[in-house]
């Protein structure tokens, strides 16, 4: 992929990447920093991307990795709390934005990719490199915890 | 607001404008900075890789690199010799790297400067127990049985533990062999003044047993050991009426030798030559000031080989041997008679006076005053051999000298004739007179 093509694609998907980071981290500053880091890593490796049609998936995976690293760092410093799946009541008490952030990583990523970034279940499974069935199970668990009653159509996108 | 409404609200939220462009601009800036840093780093890494390859696959480079860390200290350890200094500057040093421990003393032979005729061994002595150590070197053939045909001695004394020391081993006739056994006997240096001696002519006390003994087998690299240039000259000059033929010049990294032969019709033996060597661009190389300055042969009293600092590393196309003076021993004055009772001599070398001859117990103590020819440097007036009235040969094995100051001053030298019941003695002067050339005599070389 050329650098010119890379620039165009980053500008196009920048907003979506930022929102994903913000949902995972809850802080605009942290989201901006993770996005900057993800774009930088992608720029360093863009020549290795041989199929530009996979750009979105590729840069999203980079961003997810950067955000996971940042979440681990924040957890070490007690600046981020994740709740166990048994803590339904506490999820219920939180606003949705915070509840998403408090989901375990593997559930939070499914929700963000599926309902905020617009990826289908198959694309989400591919992105997270997990079987589609696993992705579906996680999605169901996440929706239950968040008390989100989505239509069957929306769920199966 | 229920969860679905919250979801819709979150999904509707928009990111700040230009967030992608800002991240891109920052990423591009970081990438440029990284390249800026990485390019020199990459060049450095490439240079390092080439260096590693050279060191591993090119023996001369590995050899030279192995020497680098020690060169600075070596340079300060060879200030006594401009030739060795030039050798160090030109990386002409063979690393040895042998360490031995005996008791509480450790000796490490680090390197040598070796050529066809001379070896200078660099080593250190260390001990946690003894504050200051001194050593006596020894040089033997590789099997350790026979002393090597050479002369040797340390180049300094009163050296602190851990400091680089050196011993120079000199081969006059023979060449440096492929291997030598270099030994060191080590004692604790005296920290207190020695007990007062009743007479300076007493036998020196026996050396106590050494604290440690070391034996290092030194193998010399042929690349160094075979180094040297030999130039045949065969040019005859007349010095003070005596014919001297400059036969050849030997140029080694450690020193230079000017060899000469005399004419059988000469009336005097050449005992010392005052000279210097000059390059075509006017650089002067003086006679050796520390160590062996000249050598002779058993066949005649003449000193026929003179040493100077080496021109080896200076690659001169033309050299000049400039002779400015000489010291002679007239053949008519090879022996002189001294009447000890009256304190008179049949003749004395130029610039010397027989001051006194005194009887002390069974010995005669002879005192001679001599003119200082070189600042702070006394010289030997008589050779070690003398004869009693019956013609029996005796050996003079001790003397003292003191008071040599400025040129033109006098110094005093004293020596005993031990257990000598006679009133006369035949002494053999080391020289009879000095000569200074009105015009320096020049011999062109190459």
Supply database-style keywords.
heterodimer, A: 157 residues, mainly alpha, Rna Polymerase Sigma Factor, Chain: A, Arc Repressor Mutant, subunit A, 2 domains, globular, B: 446 residues, alpha+beta, Immunoglobulin-like, five-stranded antiparallel beta sheet, 18% helix, 43% strand
Summarize it.
By secondary structure, chain A is mainly α. Chain A is 73% helix and 0% strand.
Could you please describe the fold and organization of this structure?
The complex is a heterodimer of chains A (157) and B (446). Chain A is built from 9 helices and no strands. Chain A is an all-alpha fold. Chain A folds into 2 domains: 1-80, RNA polymerase sigma factor, region 2, helix turn helix motif (Rna Polymerase Sigma Factor, Chain: A, Orthogonal Bundle); 82-157, Winged helix-like DNA-binding domain superfamily/Winged helix DNA-binding domain (Arc Repressor Mutant, subunit A), CATH 1.10.10. In chain A, helix 1 packs parallel to helix 3 (55-76) and helix 2 crosses helix 3. Chain A is globular, with a radius of gyration of 16 Å. The two termini of chain A are 29 Å apart. Chain B has 446 residues and is of the alpha+beta class. In chain B, 18% of the residues lie in helices and 43% in strands. Chain B has helices spanning 3-12, 19-57, 59-77, 82-89, 222-225; strands spanning 94-102, 105-114, 118-126, 133-140, 151-154, 165-170, 179-188, 212-219, 229-239, 242-251, 256-262, 268-279, 284-285, 294-297, 300-308, 319-330, 336-339, 344-345, 352-360, 363-371, 382-387, 393-395, 400-402, 410-417, 424-429, 433-445. In chain B, the strands form 6 sheets. Chain B has a 5-stranded antiparallel beta sheet with strand order 1-2-3-6-5. A 5-stranded antiparallel beta sheet of chain B has the order 9-10-11-15-14, with no helix packed on it. The longest helix of chain B is centred in the first third of the chain and has 39 residues, at 19-57. Classes of the chains: A mainly alpha (157), B alpha+beta (446). The A-B interface holds A 7, 10-19, 22-23, 32, 35-36, 38-40, 42-44, 95-97, 115-116, 146-149 and B 3-4, 6-7, 10-11, 13-16, 18-24, 26-28, 30-31.
């Amino acid at each position: 992929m050329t650098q010119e093509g890379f620039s165009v694609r980053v500008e196009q998907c920048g907003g979506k990447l930022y929102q994903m980071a913000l949902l995972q981290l809850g802080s605009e500053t942290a989201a901006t920093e993770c996005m900057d880091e993800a774009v930088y890593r992608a720029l360093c490796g863009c020549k290795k991307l041989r199929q530009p049609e996979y750009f979105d998936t590729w840069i999203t995976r980079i961003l997810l990795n950067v955000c996971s690293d940042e979440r681990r760092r924040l957890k070490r410093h007690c600046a981020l709390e994740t709740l166990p799946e048994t803590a339904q009541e506490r999820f219920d008490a939180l606003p949705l934005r915070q509840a998403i952030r408090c989901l375990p990583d593997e559930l939070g990523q499914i929700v963000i990719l599926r309902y905020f970034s617009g990826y289908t279940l198959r694309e989400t499974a591919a992105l997270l490199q997990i079987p589609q069935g696993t992705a579906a199970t996680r999605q169901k668990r996440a929706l239950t915890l968040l008390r989100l009653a989505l239509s069957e159509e929306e769920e199966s996108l | 607001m229920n969860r679905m409404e919250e979801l819709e609200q979150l999904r509707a939220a928009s990111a700040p404008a230009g967030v992608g462009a800002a991240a891109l601009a920052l990423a591009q800036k970081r990438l440029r900075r990284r390249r800026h840093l990485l390019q020199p780093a990459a060049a450095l890494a490439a240079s390092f890789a080439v260096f590693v390859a050279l060191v591993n696959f090119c023996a001369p480079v590995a050899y030279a690199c192995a020497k680098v860390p020690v060169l600075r200290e070596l340079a300060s350890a060879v200030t006594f010799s401009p030739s060795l200094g030039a050798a160090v500057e030109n990386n002409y040093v063979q690393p040895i790297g042998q360490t031995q421990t005996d008791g509480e003393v450790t000796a490490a032979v680090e390197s040598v400067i070796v050529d066809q005729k001379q070896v200078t061994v660099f080593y250190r002595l260390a001990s946690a127990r003894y504050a200051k150590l001194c050593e006596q070197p020894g040089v033997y053939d590789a099997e350790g049985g026979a002393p090597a045909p050479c002369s040797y001695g340390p180049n300094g004394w009163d050296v602190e533990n851990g400091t680089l020391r050196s011993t120079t081993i000199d081969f006059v006739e023979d060449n440096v062999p492929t291997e030598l056994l270099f030994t060191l006997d080590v004692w604790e240096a005296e920290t207190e003044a020695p007990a007062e001696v009743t007479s300076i002519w007493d036998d020196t006390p026996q050396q106590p047993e050494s604290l440690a003994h070391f034996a290092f087998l030194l193998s010399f690299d042929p690349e160094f050991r075979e180094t040297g240039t030999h130039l045949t000259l065969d040019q005859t000059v007349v010095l003070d009426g005596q014919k001297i033929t400059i036969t050849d010049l030997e140029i080694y990294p450690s020193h230079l030798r000017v060899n000469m032969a005399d004419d059988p019709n000469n009336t005097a033996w050449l005992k010392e030559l005052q000279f210097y060597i000059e390059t075509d661009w006017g650089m002067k190389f003086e006679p050796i000031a520390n160590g062996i300055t000249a050598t002779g042969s058993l066949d005649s009293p003449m000193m026929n080989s003179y040493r100077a600092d080496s021109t080896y590393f200076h690659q001169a196309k033309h050299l000049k041997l400039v002779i400015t003076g000489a010291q002679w021993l007239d053949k008519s004055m090879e022996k002189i008679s001294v009447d000890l009772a009256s304190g008179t001599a049949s003749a004395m070398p130029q610039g010397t006076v027989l001051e006194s001859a005194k009887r002390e117990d069974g010995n005669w103590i002879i005192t001679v005053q001599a003119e200082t020819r070189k600042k702070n440097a006394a010289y030997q007036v008589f050779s070690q051999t003398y004869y009693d009235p019956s013609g029996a040969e005796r050996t003079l094995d001790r003397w003292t000298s003191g008071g040599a100051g400025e040129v033109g001053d006098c110094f005093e030298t004293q020596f005993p004739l031990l257990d000598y019941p006679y009133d006369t003695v035949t002494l053999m002067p080391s020289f009879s007179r000095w000569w200074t050339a009105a015009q320096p005599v020049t011999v062109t070389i190459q």
